[in-house]
Specification:
Largest sheet: 7 strands, mixed
Low-confidence stretches: none
Number of strands: 16
Distance between the termini: 58 Å
Structural class: alpha+beta
Radius of gyration: 23 Å
Number of helices: 15
Mean pLDDT: 91
Shape: globular
């Protein structure tokens, strides 16, 4: 990223973004107290949300739903319409921010290709899920107790057993777990209002019969050049999302894509101990630790830019320095389209390369222009630390929008260590820590994954 590009990016939010977020915040406040006791302020907030989408096909239905909810009538249809209105406003914010980023980076983006409707799921399970979400909305976050959270268990168990509802089931499971872990919510000083409202709204939309249109899928072969790995970790799950460039055979311009692996875990598996969860995928591990390309043959690429990982279709390629890849090919790469339901500011994560900057506190400074470094997003399973990042001069990272401003999440850096420039990547420890102190600590703690696997195997043999 050049100084002129950064100046364009941080030159103020697109028109309408603050106002749209205010309308969303008003709706989210209604979910805190509950739709069962809206009051005048709550009714005004719903009316304002409906007015925000008045010029869209949702306008008339949103106004009607807001009026009925303010009058005390709560139904699944009304809640769904307002959840859609909220998502539409956040989608518009997402589009404005993404257009700003694409314009600043001169990045070309593909058009969304619809692949037809997703398979329809059992309606009784969808209705059961909507019923639980309706009770949450009526009660409000402050009124949620263990009984209300536990009432999701029966329908959740049935959804987890239905492959067509796996995405919705995992979402509901996560929301229920967060609510259960936060109880008693009534005594909490602050609530994650935006996050819980995001999860609730997305679940309401996923509960609609008929499913959402699936993106088109293509079979591709070519060379994948990793740029960096983003790690998303929770107490019981972890996902590796490797961003990179795919050179498809027969195409002149590379594509920006990502390939992912996920694994279940327990909360005692943290830091570098997470990597053994993925040791059954040696090609990907080698690509991260040895900085190699990956040759894909007849792999599935979705319209969203997700390259579905399959070990039998991936082979280790030649060495490929991510910083060299970014310097030579990132500017001319085609970015993927965004699925309709994923249009949300929190989803933004655009790969960029920034070089020759200074660091002031937690801000990157390039020719007087500033960009916040998302140091809180650094995972504990790799060598990157806030101290190393703030001492760096080059950074490969994901451009994100957080708390009303752009921020850069580092995936790899170049920093001076013992007077020499050294490149460090989040995935450098995929085959084990290279830092002697960390390696010693990991060894002293024992191989948690191996112990748990052995115990699980022993139980299965009994």
């Amino acid at each position: 990223m050049l100084a002129t590009q950064l100046a364009t990016l941080v030159g103020g939010a697109p028109a309408g973004v603050p106002e749209s977020l205010d309308l969303v915040a008003g709706f989210d406040a209604c979910l805190v107290s509950g739709f069962g006791r809206l009051g005048d302020d709550g009714g005004a907030a719903l009316a304002a949300l409906a007015a925000g989408v008045a010029g869209t096909p949702l306008g008339e239905r949103a106004a009607e739903a807001a009026a009925k909810l303010a009058a005390g009538s709560v139904s699944d249809d009304q809640l769904t319409v307002l959840a859609a209105a909220r998502s539409a406003l956040l989608g518009a914010v997402h589009d404005g921010l993404l257009d700003r980023a694409d314009g600043a980076l001169s990045r070309t983006r593909a058009e969304w290709a619809d692949g037809g409707a997703a398979p329809e799921a059992p309606r009784n399970l969808l209705e059961g899920c909507r019923s639980w979400l309706r009770e949450l909305a009526i009660t409000g976050w402050r009124g949620v107790d263990h009984d209300l959270v536990s009432s999701s268990a029966q329908v959740l168990e049935a959804m987890l057993a239905e492959p067509r509802l796996r995405r919705l089931a995992v979402l509901i499971d996560g929301l229920a777990a967060e609510l259960r872990g936060s109880a008693p919510i009534a005594t909490m000083d602050e609530l994650p209002e935006r996050r819980w409202a995001d999860l609730w709204s997305r679940a309401m939309l996923l509960c609609q019969a008929g499913g959402w249109p699936a993106g088109a899928a293509a079979t591709v072969s070519g060379r994948f050049l990793p740029l960096g790995v983003d790690v998303v970790e929770h107490a019981t799950a972890v996902q590796l999302q490797v961003h990179g460039l795919l050179e498809v055979r027969g195409e002149s311009a590379p594509r920006l894509v990502r390939t992912s692996l996920a694994a279940a875990k327990v909360d005692t598996i943290v830091g570098p101990a997470i990597w053994p969860l993925f040791d059954a995928h040696p090609v990907l591990i080698a690509a991260l630790t040895e900085r190699r390309s990956i040759e894909f043959t007849d792999a599935t690429l979705l319209a969203s830019g997700d390259l579905l990982w399959a070990d039998e279709r991936a082979a280790a390629g030649a060495e490929a320095d991510p910083f060299v890849t970014a310097r030579l090919h990132l500017a001319g790469a085609t970015a993927p389209a965004v699925p309709p339901l994923d249009r949300h500011p929190v989803r933004l994560g655009e790969p960029v390369l920034v070089e020759n900057y200074a660091v002031d506190g937690d801000e990157l400074v390039l020719d007087g222009h500033r960009l916040t470094l998302a140091l809180d997003r650094l995972p504990a399973l790799g060598p990157l630390t806030p101290e190393l990042v703030t001492g760096s001069t080059a950074c490969l990272g994901l451009l994100r929008w957080d708390d009303g401003q752009w921020a850069l999440q580092p995936l790899a850096i170049v920093a001076t260590v013992k007077r020499k420039p050294v490149a460090m990547h989040v995935g450098d420890w995929a085959s084990g820590p290279t830092d002697p102190k960390v390696a010693k600590a990991v060894k002293a703690a024992g191989d948690t994954v191996a112990v748990l696997r052995e115990r699980a195997g022993r139980l299965l043999r009994k």
